[in-house]
């Protein structure tokens, strides 16, 4: 099973989704999805003295501009074990520039954490939480001589639009794979999605 692709799409929506955790809060180990196996693989130990301030992973059935699943920071009162699934809802999004590529990271809260599930938007959080996250993203690659620039932060509505966009990108790229065609314009989305739904059983080969 590859969690990026092999999950019921009814469990993933812009309003709520199941997140896959790759990295526990407090860790310096940078794990990533191994796309061939669906497992996680250690990419590196962070070069800096920083650690991940939140649990970190991705949203299945999404595809971001860097050709990876859409990243998500899961704000929780406890570290969440890697390779866990967590039902979350989005409250914000951070847009970055990393290696001259746009990189968006959703901020989400687990439904099952009573310490945080009263918050519905990043504007409601204590300011230090977002400041700490943005500081981490700015410095965690500095000793690798890589520059990361924070471009903007968005609210819960912005996060939902980002998720919706990345879900659409995933669907379109599934179709491109099957049809072996050139990239399709977004105005053909409904047409190709119908084809996608008719051949959903082939997704494991993507």
Give a quick rundown of the structure:
By secondary structure, the chain is of the alpha+beta class. The chain has helices spanning 127-139, 156-179, 189-198, and strands spanning 17-23, 29-33, 40-45, 55-59, 70-74, 85-98, 101-110, 148-154. Helix 2 (156-179) crosses helix 3.
Structure, described:
- With 206 residues, the chain is α+β, with helices and mostly antiparallel strands.
- 23% of the residues lie in helices and 29% in strands.
- It is built from 3 helices and 8 strands, in the order E-E-E-E-E-E-E-H-E-H-H.
- The strands form 2 sheets. Strands 1-4-5-7-6 form a 5-stranded mixed β-barrel. The chain has a two-stranded antiparallel ribbon with strand order 2-3.
- A hairpin with a 2-residue loop joins strand 6 and strand 7 (101-110).
- The model is unreliable at 201-206 (pLDDT under 50).
